[in-house]
Each structure stands twice: as C-alpha cells, then as structure tokens.
Task: inverse folding
C-alpha cells in the first residue's frame, strides 16, 4: 500500500518545519556565544593645556562618541585659575559653548567629571578649545 498524496505532503511539510526549527536554534546558539559589545567611558580626566602665548579662548567644543549611552552625562570644566566655564554633556550629542568675555590665558586646566545624578558617564572623545571658531588646543581623554 502506497502513501496518499496528503500523507506525503504532510511528511514533507513536517520534515521541512523540523529543519527550519533546527537551523533557527543553531543561529540562536551562535549569537549567544558572542558577548555583547561593550564600551566603557572615561569616568574622569584632568589635563593642563599650555599654549605658546596667551590666547582669548571664547569657545569650548566637546565631541561625544556615537557609542556613548543615551542616558549618560559628564561635566566638562575649563579653568584658568581665575575664571571657570562648565559644559554639561548629556547623551550622544556633541556640544559647544561660546562665551564672552573670553578666557585670556596661556595655561588652562581641562577636566571631565561624572555627573553623580546620572546613571552613567557620557563618552567624550575630544575637547577643543577655540578662538573665533579655530581650534587652538585639543584634549583627548
């Protein structure tokens, strides 16, 4: 007695479904073996920037990594011993702060500090000190 067409279709369909489930679970297992990519941000950084001569710094530009957590935050301080400027970085957006009067100095302290009320730090790639839109110094944490 030979199997009917309905029985043959049922066998082919069920064996195809089993093969599909086996392949899907194999792909899932391969993904589970790879650890999730992690990116750690510098929690704090302090650097003294020395310029060749006193310059009127009128802008701070902070570039944030695209891998920075969207809920992270970091404070960037620029201080010359008399005056301080603070720029709070949140999330993944690069930001800049223009100010007047400028900080006129040849030596500046640049520091990155965590915001303790934020769940994590923002990932700062670079801090630029600028004079009339032109970068004159760069700090890379």
Result:
């Amino acid at each position: 007695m030979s199997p009917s067409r309905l029985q043959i279709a049922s066998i082919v369909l069920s064996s195809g479904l089993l093969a599909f489930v086996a392949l899907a679970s194999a792909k899932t297992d391969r993904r589970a073996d790879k650890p999730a990519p992690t990116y750690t941000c510098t929690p704090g950084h302090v650097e003294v920037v020395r310029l060749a001569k006193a310059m009127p710094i009128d802008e701070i530009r902070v570039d944030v990594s695209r891998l920075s957590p969207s809920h992270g935050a970091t404070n960037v301080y620029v201080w010359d011993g008399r005056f301080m400027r603070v720029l709070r970085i949140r999330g993944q957006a690069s930001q800049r702060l223009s100010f007047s009067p400028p900080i006129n100095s040849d030596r500046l302290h640049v520091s990155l500090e965590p915001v303790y009320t934020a769940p994590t730090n923002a990932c700062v790639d670079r801090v630029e000190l600028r004079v009339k839109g032109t970068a004159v110094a760069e700090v890379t944490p």
Q: What stands out?
A: Residues 16-23 have pLDDT under 50 and may be disordered. Residues 5-33 form the longest helix (29 residues). The longest strand covers residues 45-64. Residues 45-139 form a domain with the Jelly Rolls fold (CATH 2.60.120.260).
